[in-house]
Amino acid sequence: MKLLLTRNIFNVKLLVAPLLFGVLYGCQKTDHLSDLLPEAKDLSSNAKKSPRKSTQESADFVYQWYKTLAEIQLPNPAGPPPLNYRNFAYIGVGLFESVQPGIKGGSSFSPKLYQMPAMPKPDMSEDYLWSASANAALASMFKLFLTGPTGLTEANRTSIDAMEAANYNRFRSMANEDVLQRSQAFGRSIATAIYNWSTTDNFTMASVGWVPPVFPGALVPTSTPPTIAGAYLGDSRPFLKYSLKALAPPIPVPYSTDPSSQFYQAAREVYD
In the chain, what is the straight-line distance between the N-terminal and C-terminal CA atoms, in Å? Predict the structure, then answer.
């Protein structure tokens, strides 16, 4: 079956988003605002609101973003699971790119992921609050990717805008307005670049023109004409170049209709 034997792209894509989120959390996590900026205790001077370039920033608000989107997605998922896996993988890459300039020794994934273009670069002679960058990037990417007839409602979009604004207002205790605006603009530029990259990956859930393969044990479509959602998923661009030639491992038990075969007996056990 083509869907099973083509390169295993979605295992890679599904793993990328939580992996990148873990990188962000591991590099940036702290527990208290006083740990983030000692100056946050004294907000009397705007000069004290510019973040130190070596200061760690909490990732707690990122957890809240994903929790909120999970709550939005549960009753109204934005499309079939493979589409959601793909969208959240891109969002995970974008989240990382929105903060990686602030990670000591960090570098973009552009040279590492297959056909990923160079990402916008911040002006490192200026100060940034990477939390504000991530906040803007996530809000923008959620609205860019989670679209379609079963995607975000207007109420969902309003909630996303409200959460972005609430986070931005909290960040005012950590940085001055120039820093926040600059950081927000950078995050949004990353979101746009990631979305534009995603439009070239040849992903489709369509099955128009698909001809099902015929061999013993092949999928037998029950509709006329035969359709299967995502029949061409194997033609999608993977995140890792090696996946272009990687195949799923062979089926461990050969297909057989012989009642004495291991395959038949296993299938019978499930049936019974």
Answer: 25
Please check whether residue 2 is in contact with residue 228, taking contact to mean a CB–CB distance below 8 angstroms.
no
Q: Quick one: tokens of 152?
A: 């975000």
Please tell me the predicted confidence (pLDDT) of residue 44: 33
Predicted confidence at residue 205, as pLDDT, reads 87
What Cα–Cα distance (Å) separates residue 215 from each residue in 75, 147, 195, 247, 248?
Answer: 39, 38, 39, 18, 18
Sign, Cα dihedral of 215, 217, 223, 229: negative
pLDDT of residue 206: 86
Q: In three state form, how does the secondary structure of the chain look?
A: CHHHHCCCHHHHHHHHHHHHHHHHHHHHCCCCHHHHCHHHHCCCCHHHHCCCCCCCCCCHHHHHHHHHHHHHHCCCCCCCHHHHHHHHHHHHHHHHHHHHHHCCCCCCCCCCCCCCCCCCCCCCCCCCCHHHHHHHHHHHHHHHHCCCCCCCCHHHHHHHHHHHHHHHHHHCCCCCHHHHHHHHHHHHHHHHHHHHHHCCCCCCCCCCCCCCCCCCCCCCCCCCCCCCCCCCHHHCCCCCHHHHCCCCCCCCCCCCCCCCCHHHHHHHHHHC
Q: What is the dihedral of CA 49, 50, 56, 58, to 10 degrees?
A: 50
Q: Give mean pLDDT in consecutive 10-residue pieces for the chain, a chain of 272 residues.
A: 31 41 40 33 38 68 92 75 91 97 93 97 96 98 82 88 96 96 98 98 88 85 76 91 86 91 95 96
Give which of 87, 61, 101 is closest to 143, Cα–Cα: 87
Other beta carbons within 10 Å of 219: 15
Distance CA 266, CA 251 (A): 13
